[in-house]
Write a structure and sequence with these properties.
CATH superfamily of the largest domain: 2-enoyl-CoA Hydratase, Chain A, domain 1
Oligomer: single chain
Distance between the termini: 131 Å
Radius of gyration: 40 Å
Number of domains: 2
Number of helices: 11
CATH class of the largest domain: Alpha Beta
Order of helices and strands: HHEHEHEHEEHHEHEHEHH
Helix content: 40-55%
CATH architecture of the largest domain: Alpha-Beta Complex
CATH topology of the largest domain: 2-enoyl-CoA Hydratase, Chain A, domain 1
Length: 338
């Protein structure tokens, strides 16, 4: 045997019968995996689309339901007071600051009072007061109209004080036939004020010069950035003194001989309910239910206080964006409250 025979290459292995089948299955498996992935993607996409569509329908129905609820509430409010047709106690609330742009404006209060007086089933009117005061002009309008309505319709008016009845609020309450308080209520503050600030020294320290041009020597009267002018201050003091005299006259007319001779009665001081009764500023203790049940003897209480249009209240609360859109959409649906 020669060396060349020993180094001969081994015979080649026989070809496997499985190799062609495996080669054919590999591309098929890749295609199947791709098809499965695409199928899952399509299913997920369809599921997301269905979910989005459901939420879109839900929100549309929710907005439509809100629209219907607001519209219904407006119609309910527009119908005015509702309740028993028999004798009842009429309620008008004075809550918060008395001002032309507040819920306790003269326009709103007088509107409620007229409705209450004109209702033949209302045996008497209760003013439920919780106000620190406000504009003497608005209070004077309500006071004068209250006296006119009392004389015209011959119905009693009772003021029921909750937390506070001070200043302009007491101006209104003084026109009532009786004033009921809680022992801890705050009553009084029969006075008038003009308040402000003076920044003259501050401007000097900051090196700022006030430049004010006026046509009329008193046009800049009480300007907080200018030194006080004694003649202008005297004029303003005389003006509020006259308003104070009007206030005192209204209280004396309304309370009459019930007022005690107290030197600080009209000084601007205020008292608790018990002290107010002792001074003659109030008559006795009692709340709304007590007055309706024991004094008026008509336990059913109907609220005549104008509450305003619901859409307008939404506008004030939620701002111009959503609220004013509701105002524009819903205002034609109901008449304005009177």
């Amino acid at each position: 045997m020669t060396p060349s025979d020993d180094s001969a290459a081994p015979p080649a292995a026989a070809p496997s019968a499985f190799e062609p089948q495996a080669a054919r299955q590999a591309p098929a498996a890749g295609v199947a995996s791709l098809e499965h992935t695409v199928e899952r993607l399509v299913q997920d996409l369809l599921r997301d689309r269905r979910s989005e569509r459901r939420w879109r329908v839900f929100f549309r129905l929710a907005w439509f339901g809100l629209f219907l609820a607001v519209a219904y509430a407006i119609f309910v409010e527009a119908r005015g007071p509702s309740g028993p047709v028999g004798p009842h106690t009429a309620l008008v609330e004075i809550k918060g600051e008395i001002a032309g742009d507040s819920d306790a404006s003269a326009e709103a209060i007088v509107s409620g009072l007229r409705s209450a007086f004109e209702d033949a089933a209302a045996k008497a009117i209760v003013l439920r007061v919780n106000s620190p005061g406000g504009s003497p002009v608005q209070a004077g309008i309500v006071h004068d109209e209250l006296q006119r309505l009392k004389a015209k319709h011959g119905k009693k008016v009772y003021a029921v004080v909750e937390e506070v009845c001070a200043s302009a609020a007491y101006y209104v309450a003084a026109a009532a036939d009786e004033i009921f308080v809680d022992r801890a209520s705050i009553v009084g503050s029969i006075g008038v004020l003009i308040d402000g600030f003076g920044f003259v020294g501050t401007l000097e320290k900051l090196g700022i010069e006030r430049r004010l041009l006026t046509a009329g020597e008193n046009k800049g009267m009480l300007d907080p950035f200018s030194p006080q002018n004694e003649r202008q201050v005297a004029h303003a003091q005389a003006m509020i003194d006259e308003v104070h005299r009007q206030f005192i006259a209204a209280v004396k007319q309304g309370r009459g001989d019930r007022l005690k001779d107290a030197p600080e009665m009209f000084s601007g001081l205020f008292w608790n309910g018990e002290q107010a009764i002792a001074l003659g500023l109030a008559d006795r203790t009692g709340n709304l239910d007590f007055v309706a049940r024991e004094v008026v003897q008509a336990e059913d209480v109907i609220d005549y206080t104008p509450r305003g249009n619901l859409a307008e209240r939404l506008a004030r609360r939620f701002g111009a964006g959503v609220g004013e859109s509701l105002v524009m959409a819903l205002r034609p649906l109901a008449p304005a409250l009177r």
